[in-house]
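Listing S7. Sequence submitted for prediction.
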Amino acid sequence: MATVTNTYARAFVDVVIARHLDAAKTLAEAQQIAAMVLGSRDLREVWDNPVIPAEQKRAVLDQIVQRAGISRPVRNFFAVIIDHGRGGFLAEIVAQFAQELNQRLGFAEASVITARELDSGERQRLEGDLARVTGKNIRATYSRDEAILGGAIARVGSTVYDGSVKGQLERIRQLLAVSS
């Protein structure tokens, strides 16, 4: 159902851009609600149940929005998804929304693995380096894996930049094996 996810995602990106909404805040709010839905089987069952009237589903949404301090445009986006019975595609729609939003705004998502926690300055330098290499602004998520020993491994799209100590040792090992 790529068409369904693309249609809703593109439409919401159009709203974000046309209304000059804070893209990062809007995306974070959409992801927050999507995470709540994925974490609650009861909520998914309510929103996916065709017997429950749309007004009741929106009332549940409004309670969530009020408690979480979600903006009106994000609330309306989820109301449209619920009203059209597309709750089963919610995670895919929000993921496609993030991808489409990043593409239109010139951002690339990066997944960075480091051996230790990076401070904000180190993160900025790393994201700056990735931006120079990719030609795009970078939105990075970070995780730790002590097995890489040091350095970092960054994945931007399907491209992996391996600057880890473990990766360097592996490349040296391969060179030594070839020259033997």
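Caption to Listing S7: primary sequence and predicted structure tokens for the chain studied. Helices lie at 2-18, 23-38, 41-48, 54-68, 72-83, 90-105, 120-134, 165-179. Strands lie at 107-114, 137-144, 152-156, 159-162.
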